[in-house]
Amino acid sequence: MKTIYKSFLTLGAALTMMCGFSSCEDYLDKDPDSNVSPETPFKNFQNAQGYVEEIYNCIPNIAQCDWTTSWNLGDDEIQNPQADDMMLHQVDIGNYYAWQGSSGFYFGNKAFGGNPRSNSPFDHGIYAHAWYCIAKVNKALNTFEDYFTGTKEEHDLILGQLYFFRAWWHFEMMKWLGGLPYVDQEFSASETPQLERLSYLECADKVAEDFSRAASLLPVDWDKTTAGKKTMGHNELRINKITALCYLGKNYLWAASPLMQHGAQTGGARTYDYDAGYASKAADALGEVLQMVESGSTQYALVSFDYDDIYNHKKSKTATNCYSDLFFTTGQAWLQPGSTEAIFRGPSTGWSFTRYNYSRTFGPNALCAQDNKIHQPTANYVEYYGMENGLPLDDPDSGYDPNYPFKGRDPRFYHDIIFDGVQYINGDPGADAAMKYAGLATGGSMRAVSNASRTGYFYQKLVPHTCQKIDQGSADDYGPNPHAYIPYMRLADIYLMYAE
């Protein structure tokens, strides 16, 4: 935890000063003499950055916001019946409002009662903190110019982060709720705002304005700024120009989509009916990023896929940044995953939450004995992995043979998917000898619907198969420093969005 949080400026004094900006009830309970003057949080760069750091702290950890979590709500994943209370299953049965009481879903974690100052991922959620963080931004923007004393560079760094976060929290809310009021002004505790709910496109235009402002103010790399040199080597989580441009492009691309343009449609007549204007703006923003990346003028680069043993995630001896490091690291002093591709992440204290419980929810409960709520890929998801020649399974030239369905597949398949017959336990299985090799065929040792795989597959894209009680010393116990995290945005996403 110390390794992750030393990337931030010292917050103690600044966060103490922030007590005056908490809830109305807390404010009314205070002795008036204890109130902090309005200029204190913004009088210099260190105080102002400390003010902003609390917003970073509120970014939810998608995968570790509770003991067991749901985040992949499409048809790519399923869990076993003990997880029927989870958001994943509730969406499958059409209960979309279940997020309001689901502690295992990062959007509305802990029924909106999260603590913005807590270091525990259990205390953070999008809905739990969005309005709080937006209010913090608006208070700062309303006050900052009057009191700040510092260099132009420091001034722009603070403003750029504030504009980014106002846009980002609105954007994340829009993903789940559609259009909503765009709150860009400060309200007093005595006011009851009556703001118009905007359409999705109206809201997206407001988001774009703030992301554009942020991109114009922020540097590509904090390590190359005078202010950033004070925290040299620990600025990788900070918002920069690339982050803002990438989200600007994503926001425009979503606004261009047929769903946002025409609403839900049946029959598929308008599936590809994008708005050309928004799509062009998306291409401009994303293309600017890719041009900088490919010219070598950023700190970002695609990771390699270079393995001596793909299935066991053993990198080639010459590999440095590899695909597995995007989601899970071990033996690297609790290094937060993401490598050179991570464009947006929140701070993570996931070293302990990785071991208990997250990493123990991807295999059969008999070996991964924590919560019996197991993440499993669906057959649909597995079929998305094509063949080594790049063709989909149903292409007549792909070479796919249904009698040998696991032969000649895309190399990522062998990195990500556990299928029938592969060696699941590397060590001595002892009493669990029946599970040394994955029994995932019908009637196999790992096919119990209640506590193993209901689909005939497990997946290890995010957590290696060695995270179980036999092999835990190599990847799952505290000693090797395991750390799991799912980045919100990575460089590969930018290439895919630009192509779209």
How is this structure best summarized?
The chain is mainly alpha-helical and 500 residues long. It is 34% helix and 4% strand. The chain contains 16 helices and ten strands.
If you had to describe this structure to a student in words, what would you say it looks like?
This protein has 500 residues and is mostly helical. The chain has a domain at 2-69 and 104-233: Serine Threonine Protein Phosphatase 5, Tetratricopeptide repeat, CATH 1.25.40.390. The protein has helices at 2-5, 12-17, 24-28, 45-57, 87-92, 126-147, 152-177, 200-217, 241-256, 258-262, 276-294, 350-355, 379-383, 411-416, 472-475, 491-499, and strands at 77-78, 307-309, 314-315, 328-329, 342-344, 376-377, 417-418, 458-459, 483-484, 489-490. It has a two-stranded antiparallel ribbon. It is globular. The two termini are 38 Å apart. Mean pLDDT is 89; it is low at 1-34.
Blueprint (SSEs and pairs):
Elements (H helix, E strand, L loop, with lengths): L1 H4 L6 H6 L6 H5 L16 H13 L19 E2 L8 H6 L33 H22 L4 H26 L22 H18 L23 H16 L1 H5 L13 H19 L12 E3 L4 E2 L12 E2 L12 E3 L5 H6 L20 E2 L1 H5 L27 H6 E2 L39 E2 L12 H4 L7 E2 L4 E2 H9 L1
Antiparallel strand pairs: 1-6, 2-3, 4-9, 5-10, 7-8
Helix pairs in contact: 4-6, 4-7, 6-7, 7-8, 8-9, 9-11, 11-16
